Amino acid sequence: MIIGVPKEIKPQEYRVALIPSGAQQLVADGHTVIIEKTAGEGSGYSDEAYIAAGATMVDTHAEVFAKADLVVKVKEPIEPEYPLLKKGQILFTYLHLAADKPLTDALLASGCTGIAYETVVRNGKLPLLEPMSEIAGRMASMVGAVNLSKNGSGMGKLLGGIPGVLPAKVMVIGGGTAGVNAAHLAAGMGADVTILEVDIERMRYLDMVMPKNVKTLFSNPANIETLLPETDLLIGAVLVPGAKAPKLVTRDMLKIMKPGSVLVDIAIDQGGCIETSHATTHENPTYEVEGVTHYCVANMPGAYARTATQGLTNVTFGYLRKLAKFGVKGALEADPSLVPGVNVMDGKLTFKAVAEALDLPYTPLAL
Hints:
By secondary structure, this protein is α/β, with parallel strands linked by helices. It has two domains: about 1-110 and about 305-360, NAD(P)-binding Rossmann-like Domain (Rossmann fold), CATH 3.40.50.720; about 130-300, NAD(P)-binding Rossmann-like Domain (Rossmann fold), CATH 3.40.50.720. Helices cover about 35% and strands about 15% of the residues. It has helices at about 20-30, 45-50, 60-65, 100-110, 130-145, 175-190, 200-210, 220-225, 250-255, 305-335, 350-360, and strands at about 1-5, 30-35, 55-60, 70, 90-95, 115, 170-175, 190-195, 215-220, 235, 260-265, 285-290, 290-295, 340-345, 350. An eight-stranded mixed β-sheet has the order 3-2-1-4-5-6-14-15, with helices on both faces. A hairpin with a 2-residue loop joins strand 12 and strand 13 (about 290-295). Helix 5 (about 130-145) crosses helix 6 (about 175-190). The model has no long low-confidence stretch (mean pLDDT about 95).
C-alpha cells in the first residue's frame, strides 16, 4: 500500500502524523511511504531522517493525496484540501465532524473512508485521543495562569497565591483525561481546584487519588452557578465521544463571574462547552466576552509539537500498520476497536452522533 503523509496546513499546526522510525517500519513491512517535504520540521524531524528511513519525499501537498491509498494526518482537512480527497482513499486523522458540516459534506462527496482518531474505542476508552487530552489539560492550567496576569488581560491574580494571600479558585467541568490533567497541574501550582463531574464512581476515585487541594462536586447548572462568582479560572473539559459538546455555561452565567477572570474551553474541537466559545488560533488565542478572557484554541497540543507528535504516534502507529496491511475491511475485522472510528465510508455517514448533531442521514456501518 502507498501511505502518504502531507504537511499540516492548519494555522500554527506543527505536528506530523508519522515519525521516521514509523516510516522505517512501514517500509520494512513492504509498503511505500511518501512524505511531503518539510512535513516533519515543525516537530524536529528532518527530510534527511525520513529519507534514511526509506521514505520518498515529494514536493507538493497535492502529490501526496494523488498518489496515496492511505493518507495519515494529524488535524482534519481544511478547505484547500477538500478537492484532494478521492473515492476509495483511506483518511486516518482527527476529524471532529460534529462541529464541522462543510468538512462532513466534503468527505461524503469525495467517497473516501474517513477514520477519526477521536472515536476509536478500546476497552471503553479513547486511546488515540488520550495523549492529546493530557497535553491540552495541562496546557489549560498553564495558559489560564498566564492569562490571569495583567499582561494577559486578566485580573492580575497568581494561580497559587503566596503566604498570606489566598490562591486562585479553579473550576474544571469534566473529570475525564483532560479535566484531571488540568486539575492536577493547577493543584500543583497551588490553586484551589474543584472538579465538576456526573459520574459518582469517578468522583470517589478522584477523591482518593487527587491532591488535597482538589475537591469534587456533582455537575449541574445550580452548582456551576454557585461556584462561578468565586471562580478565577474556568476550564471546560467536557467530552461526549464523537458528538457536539453540550453547552454547560451560558452567556448569562458569565455575567456573574468576576471581571478579569479567564476561561479555557478544551472542548472547542467539538464545538465547545461554553455558549460564548468560538475557535481561535495560537496566533490570536484569546478574546473577551462579558469581561471574561476566553482561550479557545482548536489545536492546543500543536504548541508542543515534539511532545505531541511523539505521544500521538505512539498510539496511532499500531492501527496504521493494520490499515496498511489489511485495508479497511480487514483491519476492522482484525481489530474491532477501529469500527467506531469509521465516520464516513462510500459517501455515507456511519457515525450516529455526528449524523444527529448535523441533522444528516445515518447509515450503520456494514462490514
